Amino acid sequence: MNDQILNRTVSAFNNREFAIAAREAAEGLAAATGADEAFWMGLCDACEGMALLMDRKYTHAEHRLTLALRTLRNFGYRYENFEVTAILAGVRRMVEEIRLVRSTRGKVLDLTLLPRMKLAARADD
User: Fold this and answer.
1) Burial class (CB in 10 A: 0-12, 13-18, 19+), 56
2) What is the DSSP annotation of 28-52?
């Protein structure tokens, strides 16, 4: 896995620059193979889903975020130095929020619920 691309993706995502994060994740996906490919695909879906959410394209955002959940849940608690459970919980909460906004008249999206990505220290061998 390319740690530089991952760091840039996480940084952009946490700064709420979701379109930039999506481009970084797509770059990671382009160079990935094997399990890394599925991981980057899930990150790319999460970033693109959040970008669509910020553009108020709720239906498309919900679809992309759901795809991210389906892909990333296969990676357990942590994948290399990325904490998968943190983003899964945040994305799941955003899907619930989207559904609530779409079903409740006058409800606005609560931006305080936007998820964050977390990196974890790698254990030395």
Assistant:
1) exposed
2) HHHH--THHHHHHHHHHHHHHHHHH
What is the structure's pLDDT at 44? Answer: 96
Cα separation, 19 vs 34, in Å, equals: 25
Residues 77-94: tens digit of each pLDDT: 888 889 999 999 999 999
Contacts of 36 (CB under 8 A, 6+ apart): 1, 28
Q: Which residue do the tokens 């061998």 mark?
A: 125
In this prediction the pTM is 0.89
CA–CA distance, 59 with 72 (Å, rounded to integer): 20
Tokens read off for 121: 């220290």
